[in-house]
Design a protein that fits this description.
By secondary structure, this protein is of the alpha/beta class. The protein has helices at about 35-45, 120-130, 165-170, 190-200, 205-215, and strands at about 5-10, 25-30, 60-65, 70-75, 80-85, 85-90, 100-110, 115-120, 140-145, 160, 175-180, 220, 235-240, 250, 255-260. The protein has two domains: about 25-65, no CATH class; about 70-260, Glucose Oxidase, domain 1 (3-Layer(bba) Sandwich), CATH 3.50.30.50.
Length: about 260
C-alpha cells in the first residue's frame, strides 16, 4: 500500500527576525480576542461584551513585509523588465500555474563552503550521482544547508549559490522553477560584493538572477526542511504563489509530495 507523505518546505514569517537586511525584516502586530471584541462594536452598534462568547471577539494580525519576505517565489520581472532575450518579463500574477506543480529533483550541495559557486560541473556530477536526467518542467531544489541558520543574522552569509552558467544549464533543459534553502539563489550578497570590489567585474553582480534575462525562469528562496524529503528524485512539488498584481514575487508554501511503499 502506498503511503503519501507531505513535506512542508517553507519557513514561517516571524516578527523581527534578523535573517533579512533591516529594511526587509517583517513586522507583525497581533490583535487579540479582547481587542477584537472592541473592534466588533464598530460593526454592531450597541453590542455589549457580555453578548459575545466569553466576552471575546475575533483575533487578527497586521503584517508589514515585502513580497520577498519569508519563503517566496521570484518572478522574472524581479530580475529585469525583459526575459527570453527581449520578451516582456512575467510578473508573479502572470506565472503559468502548470509551472508550479511538477516532478521534483533535489540536488545536495550542503558540503560546499559558504559563498562558493555551484557550477555546471557540480550540477552534472550530482545528477550523475543520483542517476537522474533533467526533463522539461522539473522543479529543481538545491540544498545548501543554510536553513539551519534561519532566525540568526549569519543566515545572510550561509550557503553556496548558483552562478549564471549553472542556472542556464537548468533552464536550457526546460526547467521553469527552481528553489534554494538560502537567502538568495545567487551566492550571498557579501561574497558577490567582495569579489566585485577585488575585480571590478560587473558580471559577478547577481549573475544567477540576471540569467533570467536570457531565459525566463522563477526561483524560490528561503526554503526549509529539504533534508526531510528523504529522497532526491521521484517526488512531486507544489508551489503556487500568492496572486499579487504586477508583483516581482509572491509568498509561497511549497510542499514536497512523496509516495512511499
Amino acid at each position: 500500500m502506498v503511503r503519501r507523505r507531505y513535506v512542508d518546505l517553507s519557513i514561517a514569517i516571524e516578527d523581527g527576525l534578523p535573517s533579512d537586511p533591516p529594511m526587509m525584516i517583517p513586522k507583525i502586530e497581533y490583535s487579540d480576542h479582547k481587542a477584537g471584541a472592541e473592534q466588533m462594536k464598530m460593526f454592531f452598534p450597541g453590542l455589549a461584551n457580555d453578548q459575545l462568547p466569553g466576552g471575546l471577539g475575533w483575533a487578527m494580525e497586521f503584517v508589514s513585509l515585502t513580497t520577498h519576505s519569508g519563503t517566496h517565489l521570484d518572478a522574472p520581472f524581479h530580475y529585469h523588465p525583459t526575459m527570453d532575450n527581449g520578451a516582456p518579463a512575467l510578473t508573479i500574477d502572470e506565472i503559468p500555474l502548470e509551472w508550479c506543480f511538477s516532478d521534483g529533483v533535489l540536488l545536495d550541495f550542503s558540503h560546499k563552503p559558504d559563498g562558493s559557486r555551484i557550477t555546471v560541473e557540480d550540477v552534472v556530477k550530482e545528477l550523475e550521482r543520483i542517476e537522474y536526467s533533467i526533463k522539461p518542467f522539473d522543479i529543481v531544489l538545491v540544498r545548501t544547508g543554510a536553513d539551519r541558520y534561519w532566525g540568526a543574522p549569519e543566515y545572510l552569509v550561509k550557503g553556496a549559490g548558483m552562478d549564471r552558467e549553472s542556472t542556464l544549464f537548468l533552464t536550457e533543459k526546460g526547467v521553469k522553477i527552481v528553489g534554494i534553502d538560502s537567502w538568495s539563489w545567487d551566492r550571498p550578497l557579501p561574497f558577490l560584493a567582495r569579489e566585485f570590489a577585488e575585480t571590478s567585474d560587473p558580471r559577478v553582480i547577481w549573475e544567477a538572477h540576471f540569467a533570467g534575462i536570457e531565459r525566463g525562469y522563477c526561483h524560490m528562496e528561503k526554503l526549509g526542511n529539504l533534508s526531510a524529503i528523504g529522497r532526491q528524485k521521484n517526488f512531486r512539488v507544489c508551489c503556487f504563489p500568492v496572486n499579487i498584481k504586477r508583483a516581482t514575487a509572491g509568498w509561497v508554501r511549497p510542499v514536497a509530495i512523496v509516495d512511499e511503499d
